[in-house]
């Protein structure tokens, strides 16, 4: 950047609340010159390193209620000219309402129409700044929620200086509802939860009696702290959940507590049970803490059992204890079969595991785990499904393991063997030197006879070692049989230890990592993955920088069997596209505190 | 001063009485065992105004010497007891039986009685005449053992063993098949998940005698199978007594050793909690602590209001154990009113160092998964007990008795263990601080009335109200784990940093009434009895659980000592916050109402046969209500079981000779589910920490009992007996462990069936019979051999390693061997006691893991007593307990699953009789 070009910019101070926000206006000519300089320096890349997020005071509103919208934006020293646009979109009608006027006319945040030309600015630094509401930056007058039921998205966009190209968007999803509905404790007939209402879970809510619970896209399901047993949505073996959200209208299962003070364990979580095989000799098992009944025991012989469909679903602040010493996972699948659909799921701030499979065969794709207190991918009791595209992020609150794979805790040699498959997983930790409550919080942790095929795994900045192993003999015996294999493994800066096999791999696994026999791990790299913004917790970007090794052409290609996205030949969860955009939320809760 | 002189004068005036001794005893019908009233007793041919009372009892004071007693009653053959020795200040027991002339023409009873063994003899007499098969221990025998509580005493009875903390196993059948009655009344329990009463709650010095009934008669509660333990508190003295005693015990691994205690309240040593452990008053009683209801600041305040101590503060040298007791009794109003009372206190520290291992199944078979090599617990138990009984004889026909018992037992335990935990894959150190207070208070009033105008109809009634409680305030546990550099740090796993408060109240109200009508018709005599017993029990249990959970673990230095990690400075919105983890099923109340009525006949026909038969009908209604008190308007969840059971029984007694009985018995009895076994709601056991889910479909088990016994009463306190028993269970309730996604979970089912059979032998003889030289010795031995088999439906519990197994806790054999020596000249007696319990199943294996057995163990105790004065008023006693100090050992296949020693205990004690 050139000082001469930046000199003479008109600085305008705007008071938002009691904090001044500096908006540096840039003229069109200055902007063009800056852009030309940028093109020369950055090979034409228009993306910004700025990180930001917006949020309002609530998840769910009733018409007529006042809206307070806040934002944080860290320009990350980006000196280039942009324009800023903010709007609310009704995701039912698609209608957009641009701030500050709140009309359908496209304007920037200063009210300039595109025809008149957007005001070009440098990116302002916002720190929990009120954007809409009393003393707000965009709208000082109170904005009330219109009587338009369903999901709405509040968006703050950074566009290029011409105002035509979107560089970055920040999203906040809200629901506008007629009423809050207290769910019954059992759903035994086909039921639809619509997005013009929000549903409060009271204790354990069971879907049973061969009924299907359908949740419309854009619906909020609210877990309540304080009940015992805790709020849990339990899909029994004789029930089905059809929760198909969309990118713009995800289904959000969250805490009833005010934004900014929600905590892990505010409510239980989502549990789906089916009749697909598990490897306990009884064939069925109860989930501890649930009421005892035949339909709450999972497992069976139907590998194609259909527990239902989950698409674009967020489970936030789950993990209350079902019984002492036993927390609920955000997502639990017990004995779900191939008929089950699971994609685009986020587990955010769970007290236990983000995603846990107890046996079963169901596949899952596009999983986001953020700030869970325990593990991210936990498999046991003979899980044999497939998983692709997973990102796990541990912040300074701490987490334990990225993978925690068991065959079966009580019989390490139990059959059928838990030979599952994982492809394209990115694990990013906090660089602390211990886990949340494990001293050995290794990222890829195998124990108790664990098996599986692991491919294209990226581990960066994890708490302790990259690789962990317990109950060595029973796990290692799966290597020569081909039941445990690793192909594509990139590890960098884990546990504050050196990037080599002796530092990152426990003794029992070292032959596997340095061997030459055909069953040894292949394509192992101890090198910097060069990710974009992996440690910007509330707004990270896990994609590779130019020159990142994740794109090396020799990473293994997923098989073409109808489930895997064969084009994901990179290591980790992301290529060029950020599939977490809009429907998921990475914001750390303290960052949403006013 | 004047008063003191007056007292001394009174004392002096009463001295002459001290030079006298007492003969006391009772007279019973030789066949029915009924007490005989109005028996004329003459001494050395002289007639006195001495007659037996309605209980068949009598007492007289005489100068020291040897006397001959003669008993006479119309229609009965005379009985004579020779050589009754009376010693100054002592009571000589002289009890006998008399035969009805209509039935028994030729039997002449001539007994010999000495002061030693008299009470044992009385027990034998009672046993000989009992309608049912029974064994027992007298007060003197209890005093001669090293036992400090009823559990230790009853262990010496044939076929009885004690498992865990005072739970009694009779004939290899677990505590669920044994009932305990105190002064003929059911008593409430201090156990939150059980109905049985732990016998270690009763100090031995309060117990007069213990009988174990092994066959059933309709006047007993129908829940009976292994046996019914009948305890009686101290009886009314025949002379004034005041006795003090003190005892100090030195345990080789406790006394003078490092002891892992922790700071508590100022009255800990006495067993009273002084508030240091109570739930802080700022914690709301009516609602859970949860986010949303309270602010972060309030949470911080709640968290800081708990006392901040999670660590042991060991003492470097532990004191010896000590116990004290005072007992006394006298009769007033010319013997119409009898009073007896006792108070006892003991404080007993015990340290143990265990190894514990837990296995998992691997491809090569079982492998050690968790290994705690250094599992150290230090327990200080404080026990306080008191009895106050009063009897008032209105006249010869009417009597009232009022009995009161209070016991308290407190355990203060500091425990820490160190070792490898397979679940956490790390070496851990866990510290637990615990305080358990258990108590029982029982009062009963009973009356006996005989109505001569109504053909000598005998009416007895009793009303007992008992109340037990168990409080376990502020159980704390913290876990630390070791990192690669060897340093330990606190780990915030869900079972670390927890506090648990629980309280139990169990009450029983038990009215009972019986009417007996004696009759004689030709060669047939007997008694017809009808009666009613209502047992109304209710229980309240409540618990609250808390956990100190980290909010942002990054802000805490976990390497600090636990008291700092969980200290006030770290309890803050971004550090640790207290979270309530009380389950909705942690609070329950339960009721069990049983109405039992019976009719039975006790029939003697001819000189040799006696039959006791009848039927009892019991209506039982069990109801368990679980309600979450922390949720306003929560709906109660109820489990209910209602049954009516007719329970027939028959006992046949054939007198081979006047001293030999053959007995046969058949009865049908029941075993009902315990409260929590019925409740389908999963709850977490406050004692073991595992989950338990009851089974609302449980049936009560039915048991067919068959008994045969030959017994030969050689005279005095000598006996030889052999028995065989066979029990056939229909739908026995068995506990099974099933896996869940987390821990193993305990549940209950009705097994297909079970059988239990065995033989018992008892031998008790004065060796003077064999050789004069051995006349100072007596030998006692008993042995039981049991074989049992349970069939578990495999479809219901497929994880079980063995579907066919012995009953849990059943040992194949148990024997006791006792050698006694007494030389009156030296005023000395000694007793050597050997007990052996063979291996028994303690945990059923799952997932191809072998079953866990507690291995055979042998115990050897020795007691020596010496009377300092001629009159035996001051006594010194030395005892050595557990001389073998064998390891208690549990094995799972070839792996030692658990092992510890408790050390040898050497005690010295003294007792002093004021009169």
Query: Which radius of gyration of chain A do the C-alpha atoms yield?
Result: 25 Å
**How many alpha or pi helices of chain B?**
7
Q: What's the β-strand tally of chain B?
A: 49
The named CATH superfamily of the largest domain in chain B: TonB-dependent receptor, beta-barrel domain
- C-alpha termini separation of chain A: 34 Å
Mind describing the biggest β-sheet of chain A? 15 strands, parallel
Structure class of chain A: mainly beta
Quaternary structure of the protein: heterodimer
Account of the protein in words:
The complex is a heterodimer of chains A (594) and B (915). Chain A has 594 residues and is mainly beta. In chain A, 6% of the residues lie in helices and 38% in strands. Among the domains of chain A are: 174 residues, Coagulation Factor XIII, Chain A, domain 1 (Distorted Sandwich); 198 residues, no CATH class. Chain A has a 15-stranded parallel sheet that branches. A ten-stranded parallel sheet of chain A has the order 15-18-21-24-30-32-34-36-38-40. In chain A, strands 1, 2, 4, 7, 8, 9, 12 and 13 form an eight-stranded mixed sheet that branches. Chain A is globular and about 70 Å long. With 915 residues, chain B is mainly β. Chain B folds into two domains: 100 residues, Carboxypeptidase-like, regulatory domain (Immunoglobulin-like), CATH 2.60.40; 593 residues, TonB-dependent receptor, beta-barrel domain (Maltoporin, Chain A, Beta Barrel), CATH 2.40.170. Helix content of chain B is 6%, strand content 56%. Chain B contains seven helices and 49 strands. The longest helix of chain B has 17 residues. The two termini of chain B are 23 Å apart. The N terminus of chain B is likely disordered. Classes of the chains: A mainly beta (594), B mainly beta (915). Chains A and B meet through β25 and β29 of A and β19 and β26 of B.
